[in-house]
Specification:
Layout (H helix, E strand, L loop, with lengths): L8 E6 L6 H7 L6 E7 L13 E5 L5 H10 L5 E4 L4 E3 L3 H11 L5 E3 L2 E4 L4 H4 L13 E3 L14 E6 L30 E4 H13 L15 H12 L1 H4 L3 E5 L6 E4 L13 H10 L4 H12 L1 H13 L1
Parallel strand pairs: 1-2, 1-4, 2-3, 6-11, 7-12, 8-9
Antiparallel strand pairs: 4-10, 5-12, 6-10, 9-11
Length: 312
């Protein structure tokens, strides 16, 4: 890729120590005009590689939020996708992205179909990828089409409506689980292709509310996923009210996800402290209050489960 050529897709990846050579060897098999932005934790060495599409940043702080935002703000392509360093992409992901946004130029997001694998299943992870039908040949299912029941059909992509932010505040969230998050809308940001301009404008808003007083800032280690996915949709909600913001692509999968190695066991990350940002940014939406109050209510339950698991 020449220095004067703008890439089609920016693929942003916050890394941890010890990611595998196998993973990066598969990553660079992605075809076309893309840029890879690896954001390493403090003190990490940059990976020795000659692929000119690879850009590497060493973050001043460790954590998903600071590492991911650092990468997102350095993206130069019109479309951006974030993955982790144990996730594998269809080598044709750039062409899939181009085809999708050419067909749906007003979309905000293209959600990838996924397939999960146990740690160490390298042969399956690196196996051949099935080719999707031409994007123009895929049909659409969803509420506006009156055919939501077809979302498991491989010939259909599913509509993603905008999050229903105008749902009323539900006082009962203090006593029971919230009900307004069900449906085909999406809260999370990760593993989806978004319009870069919208992402970067929203990231600036999130960074802008991190300071407490003067130089003191709160930078949570994780949970950017839901904050950013919801904030993009809330920020642009007035101009997109009631609209379809994107589509979920059908199987066969476009992303493969390997479970963490034993030393990095996945656990339920609880993001209530970082999710207070949603209230600070968008206090007018009942949906945000329902989310945060529901999570606050669950703090004692999750703490008890943690203690029992630790003692067991």
């Amino acid at each position: 890729m020449s220095e004067t050529t703008t890439p089609v897709l920016s693929i942003v990846i916050p890394t941890r120590e010890g990611f595998s050579d196998h993973w990066i060897e598969e990553l660079v098999k992605i075809k076309g005009n893309v840029e890879f932005i690896l954001v390493h934790p403090p003190g990490a060495e940059k990976y020795p590689i000659t692929d000119t599409r690879m850009h590497q940043i060493v973050s001043p702080l460790r954590g998903e939020i600071i590492q991911r935002i650092s990468g997102l703000m350095n993206a130069t392509a019109p479309y951006t996708l974030t993955i982790n360093c144990d996730e594998y992409l269809n080598p044709d992901i750039a062409e899939i992205t181009l085809q999708y946004f050419q067909r749906f130029p007003d979309s905000w997001v293209m959600r990838l179909s996924r397939k999960n694998f146990e740690f160490g299943e390298k042969d399956q992870l690196a196996g051949s990828w099935a080719t999707l039908p031409n994007m123009d040949e895929l049909k659409v299912c969803g509420k506006s089409q009156g055919n939501q029941n077809l979302y498991n059909d491989r010939d259909y992509m599913m509509e993603i409506p905008i999050v229903p932010f105008t749902n009323d505040f539900d006082l009962m969230c203090i006593f029971r689980d919230r009900k307004d998050h069900y449906g085909p809308h999406t809260e999370n940001f990760d593993k989806k292709v978004w319009v870069t301009k919208m992402v970067q404008e929203t990231c600036k808003d999130i960074v802008g509310i991190m300071p407490f007083v003067g130089p003191f800032k709160y930078v949570p280690f994780w949970c950017l996923d839901r904050i950013l996915g919801l904030s993009i949709q809330a920020k642009f909600f007035e101009q997109g009210k009631g609209k379809i913001v994107g589509h979920l692509l059908p199987q066969p999968e476009q992303i493969r996800i390997e479970n963490n190695p034993p030393e990095y066991i996945r656990f339920n990350r609880y993001g209530i402290l970082s999710e207070f940002y949603l209230i600070k940014l968008f206090p007018q939406y009942g949906y945000m209050w329902n989310l945060v109050i529901n999570d606050l209510r669950r703090v004692p339950i999750l703490y008890l489960r943690y203690r029992l698991g630790k003692e067991g």
